[in-house]
Amino acid sequence: MTDKKNIDAQKASTGMRKGLTNYGDTGFSLFLRKAFIKGAGFSDNALDRTVVGIANTGSSYNPCHGNTPQLIEAVKRGVLLAGGLPIEFPTISIGESFAQPTSMFLRNLMSMDTEEMIRAQPMDSVVLIGGCDKTVPAQLMGAASAGIPSIQLITGSMLTGSHKNERVGACTDCRRYWGKFRAGEIDEQEITAVNNQLVASVGTCSVMGTASTMACIAEALGMTVPGGASPPAVTADRIRIAEETGAQAVKIAQTQLTIDQIINGDSLENAMRVLLAIGGSTNGIVHLAAIAGRVGLEIDMHALDRMGRETPVLLDLKPSGSHYMEDFHRAGGMATLLRELKPLLKLNARTVMGRTLGEQLELDGAGFTQEVIRGISNPIYPQGGVAVLHGNLAPGGAVIKQSAANPALMEHEGRAVVFENMQDMAARIDSDDLDVLPSDVLVLKNIGPKGAPGMPEAGYLPIPQKLARLGVKDMVRISDGRMSGTAFGTVVLHVTPESAVGGPLAHVRSGDRIRLSVENREISLLISDAELAKRAADSPVKVPVANRGYKKLFLDTVTQADKGVDFDFLRAERIHGKTPK
Ligand code: FES
Q1: What is the rounded average pLDDT of the residues 396-414?
Q2: What is the CA(318)–ligand 1 centre distance, in A?
Q3: Ligand 1 pocket: which residues have CB below 6 Å?
Q4: How many domains in the chain?
Q5: Residue-range definition of the domain harbouring residue 513
Q6: Which of 145, 260, 353, 357 lies deepest, with the highest CB count within 10 Å?
């Protein structure tokens, strides 16, 4: 083919010519498409450019995305400066505390919306604007399945506030102050005053919760421009990152740097390494498993645990440490962290900049003195933030955020105090009649993927009020649910298989003995196999079902925590390997 023919052939499948609506006459389809978009004032010259779609997740129900209008303006500027045509489009937005029954119930719906809107509309690349906990994983999952050149733009963290001269930020301090209120240490007036200070601006939670974890993971995966994880939402740095993201979106479209060249076994391993080193949210593991499933990979939980034993926590951020996201940004953000982790990283992994992670780190240059990101020889915690547990209570695995747990409870045996579901817990946990001691193990069933449904963040069971009043701050707690990344305590989560599908957790009874050994990575119900089998035979579980709508789709197809709680039909058609190696 001649050069001209080559260019014509390429043009035929790009920009506004891409993915024509099916009217049976392609010429007419393009004619009609152009006529309609010209109704918005576009010229032929503009419509001939590389098209960058911008997924707009702004919503008044989502203050974590409250800066979306400014980000879109900056992305558009970047796209135009690089010679492209920006076109924004809406998708679902999920604000963590506004989604009922739980945001996780809707993550897969958002990923389907993202995937199908990318596929359905003409765009050569896409900028994904996400921030609040479920939005970034949903977008990465959807984009990985859609397969076009994609780049993530994080909304950025909120600023911290101040209460009685103490710095506070959502949501580790939300939980700390609520605990004080429950224990009667502070009154109604003070908790109201704290409520005004916890969220000092728009943006995502200011600690190393799930949103910050996913921001760091997105950069570690190579899916953001360098430094894209850490600038707070309301800063000039964040706006400049948005402009750079827009310009880079044009480049990845023109060089056909598709998302499968970025998200693969190596970059997923880097993301897991980072999750462990930042004391990241346990939710990050579920989301990484879902993203991996979209590219045909499974997370090897045993290998992840081995990585955890050799990856110290370096980041001194709440809830594992003491600082906030804005401090992380001032300390150099991900470049500082990745420089420290360099010997443990897959440096050949490619990023959206078109270069490898190793080349990017060379460009980032030398570090500087700061006190938020520790050196590998002086960690804040000697192992990774998350440990993977196994045993007869969790044959498919469970996790504990050891860096935010109480060291005195990491090797513990105690009597089970069982709640059958969230309603049972709400009805009894604060009763003075509850038979519970500080050494007991609180067990909550039926909050797994199918159980609640949607695997809510209810795994952080409150300390029973009668013990809280005595000053008890932590107990061993076990469930098949999740926990907010901003929470802390000796909390065993993601017990797999969940109780609602007949996992062993379903058969625990109050008074049973349970052993937790983080050292041995063990979570065991101290009854015989024969007794466990007898209980399962005597009381088979009724797996939840629904008759219609999205809930039916969810309950019929959702997978367990180790598969990312994704829908089975959304995973890659062929799983071709495991990661990490
Ligand atoms: Fe949106 Fe925490 S509630 S990031």
Answers
A1: 94
A2: 15
A3: 64, 96-97, 132-133, 170, 204-205, 209, 211
A4: 2
A5: 386-546
A6: 357
